[in-house]
Each structure stands twice: as structure tokens, then as C-alpha cells.
Fold these 2 entries.
Entry 1:
Amino acid sequence: MAISGSREGKSVCSIFPGLPDDLARLCLAFVPLCHHGRLRVICKAWRAAYSSRFLLNIRSQWRKTEEFLCIFRDDPSVTGGEVFDPRCDAWRLLPLMPCDPSTHSLSNFRCAAAGTDIFVIGGSLFDSRNYPIDKPLASSAVFKCDPFRGVWERLSNMRIPRGSFACGVSNEFIIVAGGGSRHIIFPSEGDRVSTVEKYDIKNNEWHLVEGLRSIRAGCVGFLYRDEFWVMGGYGGSRTIAGVLPADEHYRDGEILNLKTGTWRYLQPMWKEGERRQLGMVAVIDTGESTGIFMLEGYTIFRYYIDTAFFLLAYGSMVIVV
């Protein structure tokens, strides 16, 4: 426990009695993350230690990393996100994301995790100050959450508002491509873009890079080594029986070489009529082999780079992260 005393008229507070604070912080940092919340209430010194990022930096230096699953089921400003710790089989709620009182019903945003932070990027929403109020607008807002301290921070806006876009993330940057202002309530409304932006996490800055060759909204994206893959999506639209609007979904994709800044074409990944759009995609790259998996409903598919096709994956072949 912490102790308080007097030294030359000043209050002294140590983390562990008789132990240097540097060594005491190292001890606290090595405690599994699932116990940090309960240890905060021991004393003021421990609460201060666990409320700072210093202990997380120590864990990073010593490679004491732990993996968590974070899920946002709805608008993060209305329904708090949830974090799952597989070691203790427990869920924990995140605080609500800050919001503008004039906006509501955020959807089609993208989430990304870099280091110990969670990012909520863009999306589609309604703004009561806009006319007509039933038309969805794209958002350029970016928020960052520290799930261990329970603190949200507003970051620099994207240069182009967008929702339903492709997103890739590393520890140094986040890259987004395509998207628009599509909304789940009014799917036929909204604009679509082909622009691409890259976010410098350290400097909190967005920069435009070479855009997509075609307009793509509703696409998925991921980083694979030194490349940013943008797959599927939709661009133009058509009408059924001249009345009902329907999207023209793409079967191909585009790949950005992050070193040269150039795009190349990705040939169609499935045959005409096999599926309309891509599900969630996860990449597992061990260095020796690579697996690109897609969840579509209750079925998992694997993408084979050599054949450029998504095929049904069976049993032990599948690892989902």
C-alpha cells in the first residue's frame, strides 16, 4: 500500500513502502490487464499509476502484450462498445463516445486498433441542422479511445467525409479509401467517392494520396505486407423494373503499393452471380504462408492469391482472428 509522510514539509507518497518507484511501477505493469481495474482502488498512488499511459508503455517495451476483442454493435455515442478479455472470459463496457447533440444515428463507420488505442472513423449520420433532415450525411469525424483508461479523444477530421469505406491500419498509420454517405435506413441515398487518405498516427494529420481508379463505396480493405488492398464495393446504380434502385456491385479490386504509391488492378474474385458483396475480411500472415479469410453469413471463404478467387474454406484450414 502507499504511505504518506513528511520530508522537509512536503508530502511523500510511494507506491510500495521501501521500494523505488521505478521498480514498483515495473511490478504494477506486469500485472495482467484484466486486474488493473480492481487495483486502481487500492490507494491514490496506484490509481494515479494505472490512470496514466506510463504502465502501458512499460508493457510495450517488455513486450508484455495481450490481445482483446472490441465490438461496437451500434452508434458508439448511444451504445457503448464492449471489450472481451479471452484470458478471464469476461466482457467490459467502454464509456460512450462524445457526440454532437445535433447529429444522431451514426452507422457505417470503421473501427481500427493501433497499439493500445481504438479508433472510430467516419460513418453516415443524420444532422438536425441539415435540410432535408431525412437525408444521410457522410461524417469526417475521427475519435480515439483508450480502453484501459476509459478516455475518448477527438482527433483531426478526415479531409473527405465518408462512410462504408475500405480501411487498413498499422502501428504508424491508418489508410482509408472510397466510401460515401450511404445509410442503412436510406440505402439508395448518398454520394460516393474514390479519394484515398492516409493518417499519421504520431502527428495526428491526414494526407491525401493517389485515389482509386473508380468510385467504390461499401468496399473492404486491409494491409498485406507493403500493400493496401481494396476489394469489392459498388459504384453506379441501376433500377429494377424502372422503379426500385439497386447497386452495381464490383467483383474486382485495386491494390496500392505503399512504397511506390501506384495502384494495380485485381481481377474478379468470383464468378458473375455468385455473391453481391464481400463480408468481413481477416488476414493471417505468418511470413511463410498467408491466409485471407472472409466471413459471409455463416460461411467462411479463403482467398487464394495465385488463382485470385475466394473459395470455401473447410475445418482446420480456417483461423479467424
Entry 2:
Amino acid sequence: MGSIGGYLVYFAALMIIPLWAQSKVKNAYRKYSQVANSSDLTGAQVARKILDDNGLYDVAIEEVQGQLSDHYDPRSKVVRLSTDNYHGASMAASAIAAHEVGHAIQDAQDYAFLRFRHALVPVANLGSNFAYLLIFAGLILQLTQLALVGIVFMGAAVLFQLVTLPVEFDASNRAMAQLVSTGIIRNSEERETKKVLNAAALTYVAAALVAVLELVRFVLMFLGSNDD
């Protein structure tokens, strides 16, 4: 019974942690998307100003559908901002736009963790798509090597999640520095901007934590099957 209770707590944690992080970022975004920034610049204008100030004239800015679908595409050298952030002149829009430009600056400066994350993408995709299948097949069929290959793939996917953390935190730090140095936000707006960036960072922390917990669970299952 204790074992069943432990599994229930474990699976509850796997569901609650991401939901909690998503709730935090959505609440922060909802609140500060209603607060205008003092510079009255839209997210697109914020992104363009910071890019130009850093000599990244070749990086384009595009509008993309969806909410919080903002991202930087290193292959196309494009900062893509969701509709509300592209056109909005809110605290949330300026924070998120600056964060995505932070990734563009990382790319231009060959930021080591960003390069490492890009290198991990192929094997991380394999891990996400096939790790569970290989592990379960290996454990059920008692094929130790097959299960071990699955765990290695899952480990690569977890490593990708962990490497993502310094990439995202660094982009947020760059965003704050750029927003302040360019005068896009005032000193009195720094606290609110950090709240938006910190809430967004929680989603990556939650994803990494869940990934590590899953890896540990399967490693323990693998070790337990070998003991049997």
C-alpha cells in the first residue's frame, strides 16, 4: 500500500509542478499585459531597437499566431512575437520581446550553452520520441541493453532540459540589461519586468525538474530489474 501511495504522490507531482508553473506565468502575463510601459513602445519596436543597438540589423521581426508563442529562430535569424506582444505596448510585451532578442544576441556572440543546446537537439528529439518505447520494451522483454539504450536517450533529453536553464536565465539577464541601458523602461519598472521574466523562467525549471524525476524513476526501475 505504501508503494502505491508513493507512486500516486509521484504522479501527482508530475502533473502539479508543470500546471503550477504555467499558472504563474499566465497570471503574471495577464496582469502585466494590462500595464503600459513608460516608453509607449510596442514589443516589435522594443525588439527592433535592441537589435539595432547591438548591430543585429539582419535579424528580422515577425508576428506569429498564438499566445506566448514568442521565440527566436536561429536558423532563419528571426525574432517571432505573438500578436499581443508584437502590437502591444505593455510591460509584458516589452519584457518578452527583450527576452527573445536576448537569444538573438546569444546567437550572434556564440554563447556556449546555446551552441551546446543546438548540438543536443537531434539526440534530444530521439530521446523524447523513442526513450519510453525502448525502456518499456527492454524491461518487459528483459532485454537489458535495449532498456539501457532507452535510458541513455532519455538522459540526453534531460540534459537538453538542464542546458536550457542557463540559456533562458542568461537571455532574461540580457533582456533586463538592454531594457535599462536603452531607457526603454524606468528604474521603477524593473521590479515588474523581473516578475514577468521570472515567471516565464519557472516553466523551464518545472520542465527540467519533471524530466529529472522521470529519468531517476526509470533508472531505479532498470536497476531493480537487474537485481531480479
